[in-house]
C-alpha cells in the first residue's frame, strides 16, 4: 500500500473519530449497547429539533414553481400523488427522516416509508380507495415497490435514483439511455411532424435512414431506443426520461414490430416510430398516424459536415462530387470525419479522393459475405473501347451522378414504387472488357465493385433463389457500391411457355426480379455473352445497354501496349502492330498472353521478346480451341 493512500486513510480515521465524539456529546444515551436497536420518544423529539442542513449556494437555481411542481405538471400528478412522492423522497434527501420513519414503522431497520405509512401521512384511510393512488406513480417510474410479496400496507416505497437526482438538479440520464437534443432550425417535414405528434403517436415510413434525425428535430429532445432493447424496464425508463425533459421517445428502425411496442403505446408521451414497413393497425390498440418520409430535396448536408470536420469552408468541387452517394445525415458526418483524417495524413486540403476513402471506410460488411469485393484500380485511361461503347459507359456514370436531380428534384420518375437505381446491361463476347468497364465506372463514382457469385445465388429449392437475391439487393442498397451480376442470363433469362411446374416457378422467379429491379435504389450492372438470352422485359427496365465488340487492329495494338505495361523490359524485336494484325484476340486473351510472355522472360532473366509473345498466343489459341497454323506463328 502506498504512503499517499495510508496518509489519506489516516485523515479519514481522524474525521470518523471526530464525528463519533460529536455524537457522544450530543446524545447521552449513545453509549448504550442496545442503542442501535430502538428509538425512544425523546430520541424522536431530538431528531425533530435538529435543524435542517442549509442548501449549498452552488446548487443551480430552481425552475419557476420548483422542480417538484414542474415534475408534477409534466407527469399530470394531483395533490395527493405529489404528497405520496414527497413522503417517499424525504429520506433520500434528508437523513433525519430515516430515523423518524423507522420509529413510525415500529422497526428501526425499515427506514423508508411503507404504503400504510404514506397513506397515514397523506391523511388517507388505509382501507379506502386512496391506497390505489400509488399505482400511477409506480407505472410512470416515479416510485418502486421494494418488497412486492409483502402485505400491501407493509410494502416499502422507494424513489428511483434518477428521480431523486432530477429533483436535486442533476439532469444526467440513466446509463444506457440515448438522449438527443435537436440543434438548429427544424426542417419543414419536422415542423409537420411536430404538429402530428402533438395529437398522437406517429409512424414514419423511411428507407433513407434520415427519419430518426427528423424525429429528434420535431420533438426537440428525444430518447432514442433501438427496437432490440425495448424491454419493459427500458420502456419505463425511456418514458420517464422523456417526461422529465418534456420530450418524447423515438423507436426504430425495425424489420418486424418489437416486443415492447404495445407496452410503450400504453404511455401518454410523444412517440415517433420509423421503419421501412407500412404500419399495420394490428400492431397497436391505439390509432397511429403513418407518414411517408419526404426530406427536403434542397438540403445539402455535405458542405456543413465537411466544414465541421475540417474547420474550413467546403470546396465546391468536393460538394459537387458527392451526387452519386445516397447516404443519411449521420453517414455524411462519419464520412466527412474519416475524409478529414485522411486529408490530415496526406497533409493536403480535403479533396474528392478523401471523400471516396471515407465512403469506402463507412461501408458495412453485409454485402461482402454475399459478393466478391473489388477495390477499383483502373481508370478511363486504361479502357480501350469503341467510341460508342465508351459513350454509353460515360452515360451510365452520369446517370448515377445526376439521378437525385433528375429523378428527385425534377420528378422524372413519379409513382409506381420505382426506386432511383441505375441498371445497365453489358453485352458482348468473353474478354471484351465488360467486367473491367464496370470497375472503371465504379472507380469514377468513388465506389467499390461487388461481383455476385451466381453459385451462391441459384438454389435448386423453390423460392430460395429469390430469397438469396433479395438479401443481395437489400445489402447493396445499404452500401455505396456497384453491384455486378456476371453471366446474368443465368438468372435474368427469358421466360418460357408453361409446360410443367418447373416452368411456372421459373417464370415466378423472373417476375420477382422484374419487380425488384423497379424498386432497386443502387447501381447495378448485368453482363451477358449473348444479349438475346436476356428477357425483353428486363431490357425495358435497363437504363443503359452497352455493346462490347471484339477490338479491331488499332485497338488490339493499344491493348498489347497497355497489357505489357511500362515497367517490364522489352526486346528490340517486338512488333506490337504486327502482332495485332496477325492475331485476332479479345482484350482478355491479350492480357493472358502478355502475362504468359512475361513469365517466360522472367524465367530466363531477360527482356520479353517477340518469340515470347508468339508462343503465348499459340498457347492461348490452343486453350480457346482455335486452329493453330504454323506459318501464322512464325516469329519473323
From TrEMBL:
Keywords: ATP-binding, Nucleotide-binding. Residues 420-552 form the AAA+ ATPase domain. The keyword Nucleotide-binding applies. The keyword ATP-binding applies. CDD domains: RecA-like_protease (cd19481). GO terms for molecular function: ATP binding; ATP hydrolysis activity. It holds the Pfam family WHD. Belongs to the AAA ATPase family. This is ATPase family protein associated with various cellular activities (AAA). It comes from Actinokineospora cianjurensis.
Amino acid at each position: 500500500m502506498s504512503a499517499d493512500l495510508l496518509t489519506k486513510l489516516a485523515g479519514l480515521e481522524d474525521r470518523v473519530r471526530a464525528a463519533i465524539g460529536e455524537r457522544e456529546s450530543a446524545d447521552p444515551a449513545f453509549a448504550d449497547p442496545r442503542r442501535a436497536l430502538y428509538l425512544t420518544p425523546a430520541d424522536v423529539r431530538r431528531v425533530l429539533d435538529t435543524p435542517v442542513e442549509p442548501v449549498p449556494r452552488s446548487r443551480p437555481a430552481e425552475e419557476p414553481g420548483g422542480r417538484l411542481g414542474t415534475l408534477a405538471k409534466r407527469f399530470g400528478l394531483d395533490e395527493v400523488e405529489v404528497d405520496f412522492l414527497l413522503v417517499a423522497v424525504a429520506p433520500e434527501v434528508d437523513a433525519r427522516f430515516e430515523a423518524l420513519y423507522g420509529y413510525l414503522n415500529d422497526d428501526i431497520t425499515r427506514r423508508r416509508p411503507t404504503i400504510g405509512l404514506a397513506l397515514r401521512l397523506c391523511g388517507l384511510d388505509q382501507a379506502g380507495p386512496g391506497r390505489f393512488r400509488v399505482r400511477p406513480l409506480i407505472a410512470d417510474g416515479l416510485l418502486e415497490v421494494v418488497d412486492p410479496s409483502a402485505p400491501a400496507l407493509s410494502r416499502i416505497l422507494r424513489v428511483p435514483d434518477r428521480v431523486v437526482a432530477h429533483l436535486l438538479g442533476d439532469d444526467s440520464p440513466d446509463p444506457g439511455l440515448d438522449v438527443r437534443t435537436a440543434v438548429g432550425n427544424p426542417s419543414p417535414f419536422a415542423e409537420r411532424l411536430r404538429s402530428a405528434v402533438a395529437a398522437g403517436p406517429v409512424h414514419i415510413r423511411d428507407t433513407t435512414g434520415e427519419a430518426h434525425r427528423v424525429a429528434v428535430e420535431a420533438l426537440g429532445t428525444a430518447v432514442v431506443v433501438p427496437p432490440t432493447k425495448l424491454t419493459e424496464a427500458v420502456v419505463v425508463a425511456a418514458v420517464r426520461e422523456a417526461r422529465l425533459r418534456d420530450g418524447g421517445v423515438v423507436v426504430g428502425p425495425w424489420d418486424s414490430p418489437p416486443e415492447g411496442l404495445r407496452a410503450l403505446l400504453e404511455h401518454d408521451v410523444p412517440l415517433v416510430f420509423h421503419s421501412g414497413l407500412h404500419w399495420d393497425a394490428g400492431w397497436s390498440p391505439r390509432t397511429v398516424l403513418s407518414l411517408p418520409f419526404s426530406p427536403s430535396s434542397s438540403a445539402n448536408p455535405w458542405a456543413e459536415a465537411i466544414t465541421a470536420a475540417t474547420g474550413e469552408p467546403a470546396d465546391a468541387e468536393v460538394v459537387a462530387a458527392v451526387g452519386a452517394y445516397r447516404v443519411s445525415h449521420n453517414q455524411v458526418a462519419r464520412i466527412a470525419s474519416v475524409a478529414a483524417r485522411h486529408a490530415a495524413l496526406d497533409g493536403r486540403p480535403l479533396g474528392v479522393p478523401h471523400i471516396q476513402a471515407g465512403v469506402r471506410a463507412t461501408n458495412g460488411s453485409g454485402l461482402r459475405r454475399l459478393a466478391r469485393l473489388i477495390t477499383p484500380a483502373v481508370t478511363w485511361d486504361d479502357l480501350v473501347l469503341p467510341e460508342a461503347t465508351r459513350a454509353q459507359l460515360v452515360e451510365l456514370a452520369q446517370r448515377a451522378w445526376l439521378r437525385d436531380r433528375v429523378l428527385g428534384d425534377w420528378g422524372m420518375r413519379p409513382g409506381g414504387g420505382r426506386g432511383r437505381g441505375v441498371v445497365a446491361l453489358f453485352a458482348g463476347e468473353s474478354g471484351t472488357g465488360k467486367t473491367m468497364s464496370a470497375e472503371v465506372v465504379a472507380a469514377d463514382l468513388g465506389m467499390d465493385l461487388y461481383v455476385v457469385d451466381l453459385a451462391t445465388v441459384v438454389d435448386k429449392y423453390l423460392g430460395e433463389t429469390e430469397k438469396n437475391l433479395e438479401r443481395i439487393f437489400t445489402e447493396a442498397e445499404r452500401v455505396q457500391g456497384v453491384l455486378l451480376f456476371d453471366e446474368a442470363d443465368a438468372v435474368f433469362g427469358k421466360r418460357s411457355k408453361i409446360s410443367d411446374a418447373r416452368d411456372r416457378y421459373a417464370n415466378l422467379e423472373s417476375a420477382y426480379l422484374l419487380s425488384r429491379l423497379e424498386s432497386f435504389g443502387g447501381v447495378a450492372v448485368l453482363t451477358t455473352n449473348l444479349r438475346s438470352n436476356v428477357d425483353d422485359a428486363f431490357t425495358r427496365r435497363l437504363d443503359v445497354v452497352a455493346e462490347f465488340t471484339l477490338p479491331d487492329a488499332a485497338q488490339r495494338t493499344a491493348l498489347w501496349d497497355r497489357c505489357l505495361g511500362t515497367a517490364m523490359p522489352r526486346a528490340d524485336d517486338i512488333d506490337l502492330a504486327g502482332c495485332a494484325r496477325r492475331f485476332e484476340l479479345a482484350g482478355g486473351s491479350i492480357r493472358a498472353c502478355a502475362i504468359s510472355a512475361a513469365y517466360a522472360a522472367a524465367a530466363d532473366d531477360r527482356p520479353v521478346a517477340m518469340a515470347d509473345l508468339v508462343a503465348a498466343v499459340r498457347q492461348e489459341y490452343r486453350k480457346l480451341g482455335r486452329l493453330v497454323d504454323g506459318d501464322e506463328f512464325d516469329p519473323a
